[in-house]
Amino acid sequence: MSWDYDNYLQEHIENVQKGFRWMQEHLPSLILDEFDYSNILYHHDNSKRQPKEYKAYDAYFYGRNKSFQVVLDFNYAWLHHLHHNPHHWQYWVLVNDDPEEGTVALEMPYEYIVEMICDWWSFSWKTGKLYEIFDWYEQHKERMILADNTKKLVERFLEEIKKELDKDENGENKPM
Q: For residues 74 and 146, is the Cβ–Cβ distance under 8 A?
């Protein structure tokens, strides 16, 4: 068990929750009551505490070497993480056996889109630079395989977040 990795996990989960609470406060029209957000609040990244992921993540990020075995173990842990956490877009990508059918992006359920954005944004909350998510998305969006409606919804969320952050920058959302 690594204090550093445990500390990272705790901070990451808290930052995911901060992003979600910010959205609840500033974007209530997008945080729809009909969806279950308990994953974000109580279960985000729980698989990272399981033996299949914990040891490999700890060794990869906080160990003192990046041996072939450490990297291989991490790759298996990352694949396990993607397959057990539907807030990752990769979870919703189907690679068909028939090459003619190709790779298909399935639509992500709404609550997982919200959690995915909170997950991405958590790193901005860590640094205190809440606008970093927009550059991050621009740098990564071409590699993401997202269904059309999922992509539209992601970009709508990001636009609304930016509008609200801009209001904060201009003092419009600040308490008197």
A: no
3-state class of 31 per DSSP? coil
Helices and strands (H, E) in the chain, number of each type: 7, 2
pTM (whole model) above 0.90: yes
Task: State both tokens at 103.
Answer: 């790779």
Name the token pair of 175: 């308490």
Measuring CA to CA, how many Å separate 50 from each of 53, 57, 72, 170? 6, 11, 17, 44
The whole-number average pLDDT for the span 98-113 is 95
> CB 176: neighbour CB atoms within 10 A?
3
| Terminal-residue alpha carbon distance, the chain | 46
What is the spatial distance between Cα 120 and Cα 126, in angstroms, rounded to a whole number?
Answer: 11
Q: H helices within 43-130, ranges in order?
A: 51-62, 68-84, 110-127
Question: For 1-55, what is each residue's pLDDT tens digit?
Answer: 589 999 999 999 999 999 999 999 999 999 988 888 888 989 999 999 999 999 9
